Amino acid sequence: MNFPPIHMDHMDVKIPFGDLMLNILYVRFGYFYSSFREHAHSNKSYELHFIPQGQGTLVANGQRYPISANTLFMTGPDVTHEQITNPEDPMAEYCICFEVIGDIEGLANKTTKEQDLAHMADIVVRTPFWIGQDTQQMLPLFQQLAHETTQQHIGYYSMVIGIIEQLIIRLVRNYTSNQPSLRPVQLKTLDDNRLVIIENSFLGEYATITLQSLADRLGLSVRQTERTLKSRYGVSFTQKRQQARMSAAAYFLATTPMSVSRIAEQTGFATLEHFSQTFKKLYGITPSAYREHHKLS
């Protein structure tokens, strides 16, 4: 089955949801012909993933979950996750990334509609991780969203907002009908698309990224960039880059036949000795031992 593409990165889409505002950072569709290595978003964002086709495995906070057609899952604040595709049946995925602006307030003195929206918003922001089979027919909405963003007929922007709102409602209905395990999290006010820029930069350019280049990309000073990383992730730029490099190294060790020396070079280390020392300090074992214990079957 062919699925129409979606690639919304720069639309200014903000959806009121009770006392909160959902700021849609991007909506995308794609196929996983190779696995997507381990990474985590900050405590600033949520990602809705819907798999209409294909098979694979989700590794979330160390736990493995099988993925098949019609799987729906949410990866929210600080949920470390990796998507391993089945090369014989690659996963297709619709993904919506959004940040939540505002604070949840009490339900007193609200209309029925306001109470309903506030209750749904509370469930969304307090569910950092959930996985299950979609029971709410979300695929037709994604297909309609793809049609609207591709054709862009008059009124399409309003249609896009309405469709995404319906997708969030159906997400919450999936949670409640399938009895999710909720874990309270602290709601924080989120910023703009700088969050996506930071995470994509470390995810894709861990070997070469510099503090100055990241600052230039964000439109901030070096000092502001350091301060932003510290407040969002609790680490410095150097620590964040090292985490990203080590995560990539662990992925390469477990999933590729690449030599340890080549992995050291690929992840930005000048010497094999420095790479091995850094890796052992973080993981407690040498890169070769890690490969032996974590190699995918």
- The low-confidence parts are 180-190
Q: In the CATH classification, which architecture of the largest domain applies? A: Sandwich
What separation lies between the terminal Cα atoms? 29 Å
- Count of distinct structural domains: 2
Number of helices: 10
Cα Rg:
20 Å
H/E element sequence: EEEEEEEEEEHEHHHHHHHHH
Tally of extended strands? 11
**What best-fitting shape do the alpha-carbon axes yield?**
globular
What portion of the residues fall into strands of 2 or more residues? Answer: 15-25%
Described by strand count, sense and barrel closure, the largest sheet is:
7 strands, antiparallel
Assign the CATH superfamily of the largest domain.
Jelly Rolls
Average of pLDDT:
83
- Helical content class: 40-55%
CATH topology of the largest domain: Jelly Rolls
> Which structural class fits the helix and strand makeup?
alpha+beta
What CATH first level of the largest domain would be assigned? Mainly Beta
Walk me through what this model shows.
InterPro entries: AraC-bd (IPR003313), Homeodomain-like_sf (IPR009057), HTH-like (IPR037923), HTH_AraC (IPR018060), HTH_AraC-typ_CS (IPR018062), RmlC-like_jellyroll (IPR014710), Tscrpt_reg_AraC-type_HTH (IPR020449). Keywords: DNA-binding, Transcription, Transcription regulation. This is AraC-like protein. Residues 192-293 form the HTH araC/xylS-type domain. It comes from Paenibacillus prosopidis. It is a single chain. It is built from ten helices and eleven strands. The protein starts with 6 loop residues before the first strand and ends with a helix. Residues 180-190 have low confidence and may be disordered. It is of the alpha+beta class and 297 residues long. α2 (139-151) runs antiparallel to α3 and α7 (237-255) packs across α10 (287-294). Helix content is 42%, strand content 23%. It folds into two domains: 7-177, Jelly Rolls; 194-294, Homeodomain-like (Arc Repressor Mutant, subunit A, Orthogonal Bundle), CATH 1.10.10. The strands form two sheets. Strands 1, 2, 3, 5, 8, 10 and 11 form a seven-stranded antiparallel sheet that branches. The protein has a four-stranded antiparallel sheet with strand order 4-9-6-7.
